[in-house]
Specification:
By secondary structure, the protein is an alpha/beta fold. It has two domains: 80 residues, no CATH class; 64 residues, no CATH class. Helix content is 30%, strand content 21%. The strands form two sheets. Strands 1-5-6-7 form a four-stranded mixed β-sheet, covered by helices on one side. A three-stranded parallel β-sheet has the order 2-3-4, sandwiched between helices. Helix 2 runs parallel beside helix 3 and helix 4 runs parallel beside helix 5. The two termini are 38 Å apart.
């Protein structure tokens, strides 16, 4: 009887799992809607009072997305004022939703990765993740890896989708 051989483990494939690089820290949304008059109108004096009284320490070492959950016209300075108070506490601040926050975090992360170890290698980008990794992060990773690698795939070693092969420039 022949022994079972794990061909995946013996293959030259290198797996890149963006989940391994997931920035640690709380993700919080700061919705400024309650600070609006009748939930729709920004009155500067009242808004500034809410900002001044807000407990900013709760955002310490967190990633924060500032948003307004209602369809109100919010002047740019309002988001800047909130940001100016968060900057002493938060690790990162964006104006938008959690998806934008993750997109910014991963953009910064991927742009700082040293990917030279993938030069002329067979690379697979792991697809399934338990953490919220935006599609834009995968796209940016492809842009960074494709000029370096011999071939690029997406998924798992046992079932993958070919994306790029250097010899043919595409699959």
């Amino acid at each position: 009887m022949e022994s079972i051989v794990n061909r995946v483990a013996k293959s030259p494939l290198i797996t890149v799992n963006l989940e391994d690089f997931y920035p640690k820290g709380n993700r919080l949304v700061l919705d400024i809607t309650p600070w609006l008059c009748e939930g729709l109108i920004l009155k500067e004096k009242d808004f500034r009072a809410f900002v001044a009284q807000h407990q900013w320490k709760q955002y310490a070492d967190s990633y924060v997305a500032i948003t307004c959950s209602v369809d109100a016209i919010i002047p740019s300075w309002a988001y800047l004022l909130v940001s100016s108070h968060l900057v002493n506490y938060a690790k990162k601040i964006v104006v938008g939703d959690l998806n934008l926050l993750e997109t910014v975090l991963f953009s910064e992360l991927i742009n700082t990765l040293d990917l030279t170890s993938y030069q002329n290698k067979l690379v697979i980008i792991k697809g399934c993740a338990k953490k919220p990794i935006p599609n834009s992060a995968f796209s940016l990773l492809v842009q960074k890896l494709q000029p370096l690698v011999k071939s690029l795939m997406y998924g798992e070693a046992c079932s993958n989708v070919p994306l790029f092969k250097k010899d043919s420039q595409t699959f």
